[in-house]
Amino acid sequence: MPPNKDHVNPEKCTKDCSTEISVDPSLKWRDFNQKHKRSDGSEIPSCIFSSTMENDNRNMTVNSSLKIAAFDWDWTLIKTVDGRLFDDSESTAEVTWLYDCIPHKLRQLYKDGFTIAIFSNQPGIEKRTTTIEEVKQRIDDVINSLGVPVNVFISTGYNACRKPSPDMWKIFLEHFTSSVSQVDMKESFFVGDSAGRLADWSPGKPADFHCGDRQFAANVGIDFHTPEEFFLQEDSAPFQWEKV
Ligand SMILES: [Mg+2]
């Protein structure tokens, strides 16, 4: 489902913002050619992706330096409207932006010259609580409402592409940024909610279920922020690197 309009403030993106975007933002999904076997023997691609880089001429000049604004998906950019966890309800949950400011912020990052990328684990595909087509559709709906070119990489289960492995980042760089002279690792960053924060990191909040997003950023070698640090400018919270 597209983001609930009650939760989104499209007027925050000024006309200037949208008129500068000349790249088709619709996602064109492909399978990574490495397969992963489920326990029942059936095969799925270990990663599915959609990249805008072949069309995004801003980033293709010989001497350009690519700065990447990268994000996790569930509970970093979007949430379920009813608060259910995705593992319980991936195929049916209505989603909305996690915070009202997010679409404006993403458009502004694009306008400021960042290449936007999403790196998400969707193990429900392997576990059959959702399907590849359902995952694609949910992301398509949200990205279409955003109207900004976004590169999306989805690991489908417990395989080599699953964060905190940096493999999806490597696939992005090796397959889509070869004509860019360098990636600006100092300007690039990753935002995710799997950050190892302890219980009550904000009053009443449970501990993060894992630290995989923070570990992913460390494995890639770029700065890390939680959604609350990045979108709400909150102070950083205590965390543990291992599972909490
Ligand atoms: Mg998440």
Question: What does this protein look like?
Answer:
With 244 residues, the chain is of the alpha/beta class. It has one domain: HAD superfamily/HAD-like (Rossmann fold, 3-Layer(aba) Sandwich). It contains eight helices and 13 strands. The strands form four sheets. Strands 1-4-10-9-6-12-13 form a seven-stranded mixed β-sheet. Strand 12, helix 7 and strand 13 (223-225) form a beta-alpha-beta unit. It is globular and about 45 Å long. Residues 1-19 have low confidence and may be disordered. Magnesium ion is lined by residues 72, 74-76, 192-194.
Tally of individual helices:
8
Q: Spatial order of the strands in the main sheet?
A: 1-4-10-9-6-12-13
Main sheet overview: 7 strands, mixed
CATH topology: Rossmann fold
Tell me the span between the first and last alpha carbons.
32 Å
InterPro entries: HAD-like_sf (IPR036412), HAD-SF_hydro_IIIA (IPR006549), HAD_sf (IPR023214), PNK3P (IPR013954), Polynucleotide_phosphatase (IPR006551)
GO molecular function: ATP-dependent polydeoxyribonucleotide 5'-hydroxyl-kinase activity; double-stranded DNA binding; polynucleotide 3'-phosphatase activity
Describe how the helices and strands are arranged:
Elements (H helix, E strand, L loop, with lengths): L14 H5 L10 E2 L3 E3 L5 E3 L1 E4 L14 E2 L1 E4 L6 E3 L5 H4 L5 E3 L4 H10 L3 E7 L2 H4 L4 H15 L4 E5 L11 H10 L5 E2 L5 E3 L20 H9 L2 E3 L1 H6 L12
Parallel strand pairs: 5-11, 6-9, 6-12, 9-10, 12-13
Antiparallel strand pairs: 1-4, 2-3, 4-10, 7-8
The structure holds magnesium ion (MG).
The site of magnesium ion (MG) has 7 residues, from loops.
GO molecular function, one term: double-stranded DNA binding
GO biological process, one term: DNA repair
InterPro entries: HAD-like_sf, HAD-SF_hydro_IIIA, HAD_sf, PNK3P, Polynucleotide_phosphatase
